[in-house]
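Run log, item B.
One chain of 340 residues. Sequence copied directly from the ordering sheet:
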Amino acid sequence: MSQKPRRRPASNETRRPAPDTDKPRRGARSHQITFESRSRAWRRHHEQMAVDSLHRLRRRPLSSLMTMMAIAIAMVLPASLWLALGSAQLLDSNLDDSARMTLYLNPALSESQAMDITDQVRGERDIASTELITAAAGLESFQQRLGMNDALAMMDDNPLPATILVQPRSRDPKAAQALAERLGRIDGVTDARLDMAWLERLRQLSELGRRVVLAFGVLFALGVLLVVGNTIRLAVESRRQEIEVVTLIGATHAFVRRPFLYVGVWYGLGGGILALILLTLGRGWLSAPIDMLASGFGSHFTLPGIGFGGSVLLLICSTMLGLVGAWLAVSRHLADISPR
């Protein structure tokens, strides 16, 4: 048999390809992330975490509702005290309108002389309004109030002097007292009566009420922080392994903290909404007895509502408390979790 001729192996020079100097060498390329792409990814992650945290709360409706109800109760109590304080301040302003000083004129003065003194008093500064009550008008009003028309008609002379009712501009007791002393020195004025001690006591009670509301607000705010913090702590412990894994692959604490912060926001917002519902129901429940009580005293009084501004403030406060409580709890426990 004929053997095929063996091919001679090519030398190293013939097997080595000639270098191509025309083609550029390819190496690693760097890609710079723009600020727009970063902000887009940051916004997308926030949206995902907000929706995911809301879905997690919906999977546990009973426990979530109990936490929100605890927050609502903690928000209702100081809000109720705040509304009660607003009612007291409204009553204070109504009483301020009736705070007048009375100037008693000399009974020997004629009606024209009393009108001249009234004009002189009206020209004084720090006076909002004046009203002259003549001796005849005062006697007639006295007869109608006491029902003693026959007895007073038998009297020869009118024992009541003419009076001037003065409404001061200032509600400060010291300024009103100085005004009363100045008006009491006018010729023809025998006495200037001013009784504002009870208004001063009412203002002191109002100041005490404000401090009590502030103290209760701080205490219940701490209670909301504890409730949210304890709930978030349990959530962090239940997802401890997941946190260790994502931290091991390079996730930052801000990335890990974000879903729990949204859980705290949803807790605070839900608690604020429940607090508004409780306040509305409580106002409707108490309105009828208070109206009956006020009508028994011959007056009309309506419980003030929280209003739109108060509702927005309550929702902002409850949401911020939920956010701060979640942030404190997550930051505290993330420091103890280290990837293994």
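Observations after the first pass:
- The CA atoms of residues 309 and 315 lie 10 Å apart.
- The longest helix spans residues 253-296.
Flagged for discussion on Thursday.
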